[in-house]
Amino acid sequence: MKIDAIVLSYKREGNLPKVIKGLIKQSIIDKIYVFHNYPSKKKFNNCINIYSDSNFRCIARHAIGLLTDKKYVMFVDDDIELKSDLSEKIKKAVKYDSKAIIGLYGINVHYSSNNNNLYNDKYRCEYSKYLRYVDIVKGRVHVVKKEHLIFLFDYLNKMKDKLDSTSDDLYLNLASQLKNKTPSLIIPLDKREIKELPDSFGLNKRSDHTKRRSRLVNKFIKNGWKSLVNTKKYYLINKKLGGSNFIIDNIKLHLEDNNDLILNKLFNDIKINNVPNIYIYNYAGILKRKGSYPKSLKYYKRVLKTKSEDKLKGLACYHMGEIYLRTNKIKKANSHLKSCIKYIPDHKAAKELLKNIVF
Asked: What is the domain extent for residue 96?
């Protein structure tokens, strides 16, 4: 399998030698195209240099992708260097799901009554330890089939709204999903495999960046797009791909917003699966912060019943003591805080709470 790579450059030509060096390391790449969006005129050997006298913005790179002679095309921003060969990971992703757009960084749509908050970096997925389906693969590095580009331009040709030419990755992901009903896919990635380069002109630095993207997501929702990642099919696939890692990742990703649908699914996951005790402890902590005290106690008790190390049991006892204090169950609070000190003799917070208990 061979693919071509297209680098979009705008006012960051100083980064290009490192970007190109990273692409040369990718055994999967055949030709490298450098699209010099105005005003750059620099030439790079061993690359196909394309120059523009105007700034056609991000959307132009996908038009160039249609001109290549490969079935797949990789698009790369000019602020990232690939430090290792990711070819085998990309091939594995293509083999796993040939319909998906593939990338390094993803984000899931945050369904909210506030249409300016649909695209929120709080719900990003990056440096995954396994293949993972996401709503949107970010445009920094993504691999697409020619048919994805056809889906994109077919959508743009029919679109009546004004084009947001800086959100090409959103158009690409969501227009493709409207057609092929397949979410996007990110590959496993370690931080050591990439290097961030100066991004003085990055779109994410604009004050209205997330609002503009949220408004665009909302337009797609009105046109019939909906997240496939949260459907039972892809939720279960993500869980299968990630195993117990998927459970803790989803806790971090979703529960800060008290999403009860995801919460109930995670309850069932922990009930059914033999997950590590630290995950159960962390899960109980999130339930405690959410104010779900009975459910939190249930999972702290599960930590105490298992073969957890003394420190973890002591911490569970401390949090149970706090919950019992908050719910005015003083005797139980006293008992659990004392148990905490038995497991962790130098636990200062537990000792301080015990001093203040009055029967």
From this structure: 3-222
Residues 6+ apart with CB under 8 A from 222: none
> Does residue 192 contact residue 83 with C-beta atoms inside 8 Å?
yes
For the chain, the helix, strand and coil percentages under 3-state DSSP, each to the nearest 5: 50, 15, 35
Q: pLDDT digits over 98-123, tens only?
A: 999 999 999 988 776 567 778 887 77
| Statement to judge: residues 133 and 281 lie in one domain | no
Q: What one-letter code names the amino acid at 166?
A: T
Tokens of 195: 């290097």
Q: Which residues, other chains included, contact 159 with Cβ-Cβ below 8 Å and sequence gap of 6+?
A: none
Same domain, 256 and 188: no
Is the domain of 198 the same as that of 248? no
Domain boundary among 167, 193, 222: 222
Residues 11 and 51 in one domain: yes
Residue 35 Rama label (left phi>0; alpha psi -120 to 50; beta)? beta
- For 187-218, write each residue's pLDDT tens digit: 999 989 999 888 765 555 566 778 888 989 99
